[in-house]
Recover the amino acids of this structure.
């Protein structure tokens, strides 16, 4: 437990420090607009857009994992269904913050609803994630409402906030429980296709750009979905292995997640290989050049070391070697590395495809740092990113603290799920029967 | 010449940027009746006040009214250029003229001269001035999530509505020709707000905006407009009156020919009929309205 406590303390400290550091970045961003950013008019999108793609796909991936339980009744995923739902919500909030701060005119964000142009994949993407977010919040609330109501009447220190979060719906009868579960299932059935289409829509946003050969492929949307689900499984594996003492409590869940992750990684590699083999040996040089920039260009370590080495090969070895997936270190490291590697993938999707002169000589035509093909994020970009990450960590921590875990007891037992592992008074019995987000 | 070499180096010296622009416009010797009037008005009312009034009240109207009026109306003009790389010497006067006309900040260009080695000419460089091509099928337009950029129905000029653009920069990624740049809000040294250059309003779109931190067009995507603010009420340009895109008007080698491709007797129509012309990246099907003679 000491390890878990230390990890938790690290988690909170990291969250607070990153949020504070991020405040400096946000101040710089709001004070002088985009002047402190390093992207320009050739590499128009940078770290933030890559982070947006990563976290929005992660959100969809986490939701799809939760839907496996809520829609398809995969019982072994039940312990992680609520953390997955809440994680999907947090990741979506982070994604939207990343793309919002990237806008030239942050105050005009409502224009995307008022003047939507449905010939643009970006407009589709925005409407899809709006629908997705509304459904996600509804599903999340319905899945915890009864437990919140139960806790509101208890002597728990969190009774007050639980009461608030029930929004006044405090029926704790078995009927209400049955009704909530039915609604969760029905809404999940609606939300699941959206959660698949929405990362595909983000992929299509890149895929339709005929001017950028590296993006312009029918495989792009599918790649976004596969890597989104892989990042969702990886994140859940990481959290359930470390944060819930899950290896001991739900070894079945961890084992399932590990196996799914191996499968998803294999699928991801197959998709990537298809894209690379066709692209790099394309008879039209433009496509091969753009992809070659990723593999042999200045960003080669991101591809070979970060994305492929740390993100695929090492975790595959760890997962395949960890028999029965009982080693916390191996499984957690694998989960973390896959998610981390997929972030490298996002950087590699967004940046190198832009880092080419569309007209030869453009990068030297004007001596301006806005017209260069080289891009590395600026301090301000890193700080803003750290701030959003810190906020995400804190939100997730607060969710773990204040949202009730899924009681593994039968519905109607009347026993409120009360404890998160944040409590120092965690007892053996509560540990057995609760999931900590 | 000072300004020319400065632009070549790309970091314009104060010599370039602090040009007292009204004087420069009056001194160019061409009859500039409408602009003379405007300048008089500007000095009378106060440039900033007028610009603010125009920006607040008239901007959307100026930009979108012609479109609304022309909805369903057949295209009147198809403006475009024929650029003769054989006579271009790479002086970049067009770049400077465009900067002076549209008051574009650092990092924002509407036309730019790229230099490419030309193996067919013993490695002597090939210079190519490259404005926006105002494509017939502009790849940048459809991707805009808020319809802030569009191709004007009456003359095919691709414009940006500064009051609607959210600055997502999707259009920059979609343009195959690098014709769009993002306004990061940077100023030339000596061109900060309050200075003569810094408070010179840009005539683009007839909106006369003065750049200020946080106010459009800062944070917007910007592009060449074929100097559409020089059109008359009927949407026509007039070379003799100086109402002509600044780059074409300035080019000392007369390498930039501007005109209406819809008019078979226009100079540009004749040029593309009687020469071997190329357009860039034809394979994309964007159908640029700018041709090159090589």
């Amino acid at each position: 437990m000491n390890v878990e406590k230390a990890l938790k303390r690290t988690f909170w400290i990291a969250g607070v420090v990153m949020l504070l550091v991020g405040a400096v970045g946000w101040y710089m961003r709001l004070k002088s607009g985009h002047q402190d950013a390093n992207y320009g008019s050739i590499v128009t999108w940078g770290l933030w857009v890559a982070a947006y793609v990563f976290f929005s796909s992660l959100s969809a991936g986490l939701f799809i994992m939760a839907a496996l339980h809520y829609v398809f009744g995969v019982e072994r995923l039940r312990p992680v269904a609520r953390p997955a739902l809440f994680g999907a919500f947090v990741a979506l909030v982070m994604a939207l913050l990343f793309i919002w701060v990237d806008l030239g005119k942050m105050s005009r964000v409502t224009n995307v609803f008022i003047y939507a142009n449905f010939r643009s994949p970006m407009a589709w993407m925005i409407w899809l994630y709006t629908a997705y977010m509304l459904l996600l919040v509804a599903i999340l609330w319905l899945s915890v409402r009864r437990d919140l109501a139960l806790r509101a009447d208890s002597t728990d220190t969190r009774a007050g906030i639980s009461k608030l979060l029930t929004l006044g719906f405090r029926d704790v009868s078995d009927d209400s429980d049955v009704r909530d579960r039915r609604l969760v299932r029905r809404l999940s059935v609606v939300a699941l296709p959206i959660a698949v289409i929405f990362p595909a829509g983000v992929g299509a946003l890149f895929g339709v750009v005929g001017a950028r050969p590296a993006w312009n492929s029918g495989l792009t949307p599918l790649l976004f979905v596969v890597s989104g689900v892989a990042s969702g499984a990886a994140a859940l594996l990481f959290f359930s292995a470390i944060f819930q003492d899950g290896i001991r409590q739900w070894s079945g869940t961890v084992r399932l997640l590990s196996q799914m992750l191996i499968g998803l990684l294999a699928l991801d590699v197959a998709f990537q290989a298809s894209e690379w083999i066709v692209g790099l040996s394309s008879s039209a040089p433009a496509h091969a050049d753009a992809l070659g920039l990723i593999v042999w260009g200045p960003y080669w370590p991101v591809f070979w070391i970060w994305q492929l080495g740390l993100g695929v090969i090492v975790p595959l070895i760890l997962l395949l070697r960890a028999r029965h997936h009982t080693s916390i270190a191996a499984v957690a490291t694998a989960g973390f590395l896959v998610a981390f590697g997929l972030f490298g993938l996002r950087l590699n999707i967004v940046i190198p495809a832009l880092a080419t002169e569309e007209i030869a000589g453009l990068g030297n035509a004007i001596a301006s740092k806005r017209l260069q093909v080289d891009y590395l994020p600026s301090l301000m970009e890193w700080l803003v990113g750290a701030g959003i990450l810190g906020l995400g960590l804190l939100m997730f921590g607060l969710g773990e603290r204040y949202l009730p875990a899924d009681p593994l007891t039968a519905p109607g037992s009347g026993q409120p799920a009360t404890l998160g592992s944040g409590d120092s008074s965690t007892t053996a019995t509560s540990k057995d029967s609760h999931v900590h987000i | 010449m000072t300004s020319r070499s400065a632009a070549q180096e790309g970091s314009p010296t104060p010599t370039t940027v602090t040009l007292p622009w009204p004087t420069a416009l009056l001194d160019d010797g061409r009859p500039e009746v409408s602009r003379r009037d405007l300048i008089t008005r500007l000095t009378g009312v106060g440039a900033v006040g007028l610009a603010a009034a125009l920006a607040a009240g008239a901007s959307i109207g100026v930009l979108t009214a012609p479109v609304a009026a022309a909805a369903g109306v057949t295209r009147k003009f198809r403006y475009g250029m024929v650029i003769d790389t054989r006579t271009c010497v790479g002086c970049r006067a067009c770049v400077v003229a465009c900067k002076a006309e549209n008051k574009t900040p650092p990092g924002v260009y509407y036309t730019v001269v790229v230099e490419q080695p030309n193996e067919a000419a013993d490695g002597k460089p090939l210079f190519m001035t490259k404005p926006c091509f105002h494509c017939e099928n502009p790849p940048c337009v459809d991707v805009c999530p808020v319809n802030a950029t569009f191709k004007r129905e009456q003359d095919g000029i691709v414009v940006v509505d500064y009051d609607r653009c959210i600055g997502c920069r999707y259009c920059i990624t979609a343009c195959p020709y690098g014709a769009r740049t993002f306004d990061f809000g940077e100023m030339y040294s000596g061109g900060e707000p309050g200075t003569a250059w810094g408070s010179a309003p840009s005539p683009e779109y007839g909106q006369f905006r003065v750049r200020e931190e946080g106010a459009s067009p800062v944070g917007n995507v910007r592009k060449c407009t074929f100097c559409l603010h020089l059109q008359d009420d009927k949407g026509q340009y007039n070379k003799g009156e100086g109402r002509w895109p600044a780059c074409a008007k300035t080019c000392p080698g007369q390498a930039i020919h501007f005109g209406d491709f819809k008019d078979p007797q226009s100079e540009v129509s004749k040029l593309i009929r009687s020469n071997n012309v190329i357009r860039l990246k034809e394979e994309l099907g964007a159908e640029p309205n700018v041709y090159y003679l090589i």
